[in-house]
Amino acid sequence: MHFRNIASVAILAASLVSAIIIPEVPFDGVWIAQELADGTTITTSISNPDTALIISHYVATNKPRVSRNIHGRRFAWPDGDCWGYQLDHAGVDQAANGLADWATNGGHNLCSSDDGTYTYFVNRRNTIVYYCIDAPRRCGNLDTNDVRYALGQMDAHCPRYEASWFKWPGSVEIVGKAKIGDEICI
């Protein structure tokens, strides 16, 4: 009985954590998305800075959220989760290589603010591999070795091309793979 109460509280708490929904983007490449506290997401192309900003608003952001990964077949381990559905294989490979390439030369820093969360992602064939910070006013650094390690952890616990994520123990940094439109960084 006590365990059921703890499990219910944990699921409720997880559903109240902010997530970000990556909107449709017009082309493959490296992008950054910022989700503001009011549910507005501003997505900017890093690959092509002349591209107009993509501004979207998800009303569901202002309500408790339940991640896709809570429904259906899944497997969670202490540092990640498998979401139970396969992604485009070529899209995963290309997006993973794209994020690793982007993170070369000493890595890239990413910080969240009071105003919202940020997510770097590489889109290939409507499949994304992403890096985010899941707490306000915190920073992280991602390099190529981090990308490869996180992907290796996901592949060790989930089928290779399954949507999933990995979070370093005691960290606020998440690397994951998903499809455009999924709630990520939960």
List the defining traits of the structure above.
alpha+beta; disordered N terminus; 186 residues; two-stranded antiparallel ribbon; signal; 13 strands; 9-stranded antiparallel sheet
Provide a compact summary of the structure.
Residues 1-19 form the signal peptide. The protein has 186 residues and is an alpha+beta fold.
Strands, count: 13
Report low-confidence residues grouped into runs of 5 or more: 1-17, 61-72
Q: What is the helix fraction of residues, given as a range?
A: 10-25%
Shape: globular
The topology string of helices and strands comes to: HEEEEEEHEEEEHEEE
Strand order of the largest sheet: 4-3-2-8-9-12-11-6-5
Discrete helix count? 3
Structural class: alpha+beta
Mean pLDDT: 82
Q: Count structural domains.
A: 1
Strand content: 35-45%
Using only C-alpha atoms, the radius of gyration works out to 16 Å
Give an overview in words.
The chain is α+β, with helices and mostly antiparallel strands and 186 residues long. It has one domain (2-184). The chain is 23% helix and 37% strand. The chain is built from three helices and 13 strands. It has helices at 2-16, 89-102, 144-157; strands at residues 20-21, 29-36, 40-45, 54-57, 75-77, 80-86, 108-111, 116-124, 127-133, 139-142, 162-167, 173-179, 183-184. The strands form three sheets. A nine-stranded antiparallel beta sheet has the order 4-3-2-8-9-12-11-6-5. The chain has a two-stranded antiparallel ribbon with strand order 1-13. A two-stranded antiparallel sheet has the order 7-10. The radius of gyration is 16 Å and the shape is globular. Keywords: Signal. Residues 1-19 form the signal peptide.
